[in-house]
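hey can u run this one w/ glyoxylic acid bound, need the structure tokens asap thx
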Amino acid sequence: MKIIFYEQNADLDGWLGGLRRELPDAELRVWTPGDTAPADYAIVWRAPRELFANRPDLKAVFNLGAGVDAILDVERQQPGTLPPNAQLVRLEDTGMSQQMIEYAVYCVLRYLRRFDEYDLLQREGRWKKLEQHARESFTVGVLGLGVLGAEVARRLLALGVPVRGYSRSPKDIAGVQVYAGHEQFDTFLDTVQVLINLLPHTPDTEGILNARTFGRLARGAYVVNLARGPHLVDADLLAALDSGQIAAATLDVFHAEPLPQDHPYWTHPRVSVTPHIAAETLQRESIVQIAGKIRALARGEPISGIVDIGRGY
Ligand code: NAP
Ligand code: GLV
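ok here u go:
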């Protein structure tokens, strides 16, 4: 079988070496512009349109991440780009849920115990005790209950705070109050104190973190965006921070990445920025998962993690 690989910033030796160890019979090559030679499988992250064009032979495209928005954007901009017979396959966890849990738990504890405010007080040299938030009403709402969101919601319960989750279809997660569909969105948001976003970026979810959404949360709520930059309307967040409706935000993802040097988030005292590291693609785990799926497909067996292109995730 023939496999093409594309990841612009990758440790190529590590990826190719690992894939060759797992799939010793495969002919593996790094795709470069102009390469139109046949391939059965593609393993890619943020690949250009040209990689996919005119490849009716491709059986599956493996995305080196959980979110497939970059690939689907290429298809949306130029319909028919993705090979008609190729399945699009996303990474399923591969160590990402543990990283997301760590990030989310850190944020909830930081805001619950007001460590963010103590950091600011320390900078002013002020010794001042703040009233603690009441744990029993410090409700955390997780947007998206998929591979990552469901695990995050489950593990946040250990902090003793009320946890809610929101998804498209109904879910059953012990201890988590779940809401599904547009009609339950406002009830989900009501009085939420920390809103954590783990939705995929689709036309339905773009801009979901906006003034209306912020207005439904508890006054002085916190926003944590771990999914994609376009979920958030930046101007609405800045206005909500100014008015006090939102007390603080932690942002890992942005409309433009790297975040432009003159962006107000860099210096905003109530915004914490990380450079899209909430859950990184782990090489070993990802190679094992992808190679296992390629072997299954070659045997004619079904695999999980296939993206519903119409739905967008
Ligand atoms: P997933 O398994 O596809 O789960 C998506 C969840 O969102 C599902 O529960 C789905 O509902 C729900 N959803 C989708 N559209 C919705 C809508 N319109 N209304 C309500 N709920 C909706 O995705 P995942 O693996 O958990 O990953 C989530 C996202 O995290 C990725 O798409 C990616 O953008 C982001 N991510 C970020 C990083 C980072 O480092 N910052 C790392 C990895 C992933 P159903 O269950 O009903 O289908
Ligand atoms: C990272 O952002 C991913 O989607 O895996």
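The chain has a mean pLDDT of 97. anyway lmk if its weird
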